[in-house]
Amino acid sequence: MFQSLLTLGAGNPAEHVYNHVHLGAKTSEGWWVWSGNQGNLVLSMVILIVVGAWAAKKIGTGPESEGSGRYITKNKFAHMIEVICVYLREEVARPLLLDRTDKIMPFLWTLFFFILVNNLLGLVPLLDLVHLLSSDAKANHATLVVGGTATQNIWVTGVLAVIAAFFFNGVAIKRLGVGGYFSHMTAGAPFPASILIFFLELASQIIIKPFALALRLFANMTAGHILLATLFSFAATIVTQPLYIGGPVTLISVVGGFGIMLLELFVAFMQAFVFMFLVTVFIALMDHHEHDHSHDHTHDHAHGHGHAHGHEHAHA
Prior knowledge:
Largest sheet: 2 strands, antiparallel
Strand content: under 5%
Structural class: mainly alpha
């Protein structure tokens, strides 16, 4: 039993975090049919569908026979989900998206909860638990159909970023029109400078912003999870070293790992929020000039109207 604890002391802590092949070639250069990250993605989809449908039923308005109680959410966990959704819509998105908030929120909610669930699943050491319970599984390098951290995979975060880029560019084109979309990128600069600004803005919209989204999520989830795996890897010291050495090291490892685990829970929520918030900002940035212009026009019109009104009173 104690020997099975050595799985926590893998030579490479990243093995606890990276994607594991379940069906196919078991090498980094090979191909695979199914991997742990793919399983996590499917599992997260199932969780979102099941929990989302259940929460919607608990949050939804009940029959009129319940009176005022029909507006009360029927479950504390569903109420927490409702609070998160309302906060993201009213306090984060609406100040930026204004009249488009209700139409765009379903996509933003989906991004947030999909990333959040995958971040949290990455904190569950499914493969390590199997190795702890079965020495044969560890010896044969057995893998599960789920495992690892999907949002640590640059291909997963890259696809999420590409989907987000298609969305915020598509929304901008729908809002401004094709001509308005491209003219917006010149920022009203004169001709010589407008060309350079246009290509910089175009590169930002289709390359830089998606790359930043993908890399930010990938780097944060990789660093935090590897740090957690590294700390817990020292827990096996109590088995391999004398008690006076292994005891304190193991204690520090467990206490420190617990603290990092709490931090990782916070990071899981924070990174889901940051990804959603940045997409919201990118959508708003392709619209703010239009609002500023309208605001200035309205202000000038009101000022002119007041000035003319004052002249009329003076003549009277």
